[in-house]
Design brief:
This protein is α/β, with parallel strands linked by helices and about 325 residues long. It is about 35% helix and about 15% strand.
Length: about 325
């Protein structure tokens, strides 16, 4: 699609978590007109504006057939983040519109976030902090038990892609035994990265003192750690989810596992509904219920974030659009 010197490409941006899309505009340059929809509500996308777009960038909005049918001249859609559960990739493929996600940002941040959760829960730091506020006699005598050495403990990493590998690399110096489960990695991957391969998820769950989730949300992984998955975990283990809320969407099962002691603790960065609505487990977490003291840690889906990662994410997504418009090549293309 050649452009004359008098015309511009038009790039739509559905919504933006960090103010105006000024950084994207500076990268795309004067040859691009930015059309900022400024809403996550797909029903508010104007069909006439969609029809003008040469490319579309999506942050948190859903994108389905009602919008895709109006992208009559669009060459590609780029998602700012890694996950694309809200994007109808099949509808884009049917419309001959290429789609890309943005996997090459924030790896360090998510791995660091997972490590902070793993180490803090393994050392029971939050639980010590919560309980120490009420100690009126003695001090060190209140050390919580059980408390294991790192080199006597096993960490199970479910999903050994970019971020899973980064987590493993961070775990190694602490001396943990590291198990990894990822049927999509080729034989020998465990030797190159440095972990023990678990051929079956249930084997990893049964042996691990801490399980950290690093896999995408797909039909096969939805509610991966529901009642059945939690029941397969080693009694008294810890669960860390910095991947997708759909993996731990059964909050009833999570509450039951924490109450029974099947789970010693859990740390979650992603929830099935965000912001989360009312639920007995979340209500107790909000109210700092004594039974949950230091045992449930929830962060607001910000494991990906640092000032540097935010710039990297926006820059990478904009450059993907730039390469598409100038070279006709879609990097990080997702195939349906």
């Amino acid at each position: 699609m050649a452009k004359t010197s008098m015309t511009k490409y038009v790039v739509g941006i559905t919504d933006h978590m960090i103010g105006q899309p000024d950084l994207e505009a500076s990268i795309l340059g004067d040859a691009v007109e930015i059309d900022f929809f400024d809403t996550t509500d797909e029903t508010l996308f104007d069909p006439a504006r969609l029809a003008r777009l040469d490319a579309l960038m999506v942050w948190g909005a859903r994108l389905g057939p009602r919008s895709i049918n109006h992208l009559s001249r669009c060459r590609g859609v780029v998602r700012y983040g890694v996950g694309y559960e809200k994007i109808d990739v099949a509808a884009l493929t049917h419309a001959d519109i290429r789609f890309a996600n943005n996997p090459d940002y924030g790896t360090e941040e998510v791995a660091d976030h997972a490590m902070a959760m793993i180490l803090s829960l393994h050392r029971r730091l939050w639980e010590h902090d919560a309980r120490a506020r009420n100690f009126s006699d003695g001090w060190q005598v209140h050390s919580l038990k059980r408390l294991s050495r790192s080199n006597r403990s096993t960490i199970g990493v479910v999903g050994v892609g970019r971020i899973g590998t980064a987590v493993i690399n961070r775990l190694k110096p602490f001396g943990f035994r590291i198990l990894g489960y990822d049927p999509h990695q080729p034989p020998g991957h465990e030797k190159a990265v440095g972990y023990e391969r678990a051929e079956r998820l249930e084997d990893l769950l049964a042996q691990s003192d801490v399980v950290t989730l690093r896999c995408p949300a797909t039909p096969s992984t939805k509610d991966l750690m529901g009642a059945d998955g939690l029941a397969q975990m080693k009694p008294g283990a810890i669960l860390v989810n910095t991947a997708r809320g759909e993996l731990t969407s059964d909050l009833n099962a999570l509450e039951a596992a924490l109450r029974s002691g099947r789970l010693a603790a859990a740390a979650i960065d992603t929830l099935p509904q965000e912001p989360p609505g009312p639920h007995p487990l979340l209500d107790d977490w909000r109210q700092r219920a004594a039974w949950l003291a230091g045992r449930l840690v929830i962060t607001p889906h910000n494991a990906f974030y640092s000032d540097d990662a935010a710039i990297e994410m926006r820059s990478n997504a904009a450059r993907t659009v730039q390469i598409l418009l100038i070279e006709g090549r879609m990097r990080n293309q997702v195939l349906n």
